[in-house]
Design goal:
Strand order of the largest sheet of chain A: 1-2-3-9-8-5
Structural class of chain B: alpha+beta
CATH class of one domain in chain B: Alpha Beta
Shape of chain B: globular
Shape of chain A: globular
CATH architecture of chain A: Beta Barrel
Distance between the termini of chain A: 12 Å
CATH architecture of one domain in chain B: 2-Layer Sandwich
Largest sheet of chain B: 6 strands, mixed
Strand content of chain B: 25-35%
CATH class of chain A: Mainly Beta
Helix content of chain A: 10-25%
CATH topology of one domain in chain B: Gyrase A, domain 2
Oligomer: heterodimer
Number of strands of chain A: 9
Strand content of chain A: 25-35%
Largest sheet of chain A: 6 strands, antiparallel
CATH superfamily of one domain in chain B: Probable tRNA modification gtpase trme, domain 1
Amino acid sequence: MSEFPTNVKYTKDHEWAKTAGKEVTVGITRFAVEQLGDVTLVNFDVKEGDEVAEGKAFGTIESVKTLSDLYAPISGTVKRLNTELDKKPELVNEDCYGTGWMIVIEAKDAALPGLMDAAAYAAHVKASG
Amino acid sequence: MTADAALRRTPIYESHVRLGGRLVPFAGWEMPIQYSGIVDEHQAVRTACGLFDVSHMGELEMRGQYAGAVVDYLITNDASKLEVGQALYTCACNPKGTILDDLIVYRAGDERYLVVVNASNRDKMSEVFRKAAENHCEFEDLSDRTALMALQGPRAFDVLDRAGADAAKLRELKSFHFRDAIVANVRTTTARTGYTGEEGVEIFCATEDAAALWDRLLDLGKDIGLKPIGLGARDTLRLEARLSLYGNDIDETTNPIEAGLAWTVKMDKGDFVGRAALEKVKAEPLPRRLVGFEVTGRGIARHGYPLRDASGAEVGVCTSGSPGPTVGKNIGLGYLPSSMAAIGTKFFVDCRGKSVEAVVVKTPFYKAKKG
């Protein structure tokens, strides 16, 4: 069963986002990972220093069966990309809220007011399941 | 397929739910795409064994003095040479020589043939055989009262050994042969066929016996690694073995010659539907061929992605593609011009606008070790 950590916020597209100062770390949720199955490829369409826009794709994630876009939950500058995923895409399956993170975005205001908390996201998952 | 369209369920549906299978619409059926995960299930079939519910496929029976002749007229392969208890893989074409379906014909008796067709073509092929049978032989669509499951993998026969005394006879079956057998106290017709590139059998039984047989086999095989397998791993297994998938690699726009199925087209038999068109195809240089390829760049080819040459021109299309869990590479099938079909030819897969390098390779991508 999916669990919903309370120290991150969530998008309707099943990304999670965690704020620390101006930096927002982004990954995909356990629910998204379960839907995808075995992750075999994570591709970034941006590099460090690029600007990303809220709601726009910054890359793709592929499993054996399907491909999904990865959406930025907030506008800002790309600070870091998890290049470890090039060699070890399975980290997303193993630890999606930890070592399977994808991107760090530096935002002017990293408060993420438009995102859901764990309870709201749990309801969203239930509705889309 | 929309969510509200009435989806059909196989007699094993309850077991799929109980086993935690993720059910998806497929060809009008609610089928498990995976249970424990595609890669895990794939490896189970390659290293131990797996059980597949393929009850959504269609079973058609043709009976009577002329049944063999009617079947032979509808297919490209030569069923007249089949002995009772023997089966063959074949295409059925339309008059244009393109593929209506790929199927297996079983000679069940002197004057009795069983034809197993794809789920996606069930209604179409049922109509084709029913019409052809008119005034010539008896036709019966047995699909609704026939269940079919596949037990595949290097340990498949070890599971059968635990399912009753008939296992010894099943071990002696040669490839593409079948016989009646009691399996786990259920009356079955069991065939040495499959869609994975592994040893194994496909088991026909009555609809009402299917769930009990499925549950019993899983129980008997549990400690030797038998797992239920969904459509996801079925696809990666068949792709590594370069077995065609109807609707992906072959359809009514492709002919058996360009699809690499020329071996199923027997010109030394009598007339059959599509013969004249296929003679013409064979007499002329082939414009394109279905080839196997490895993606050497960073990307995964998917069904429908364009294939491009070095200049960027679109020269073909990917018909199947995914990671190959056993071969450890991203592999695919696709149509390329014959001039680019030689092994070692480099080209590009257009992965949603990104050009990713690929190379034509020998198939099958995977071959089971014998013995």
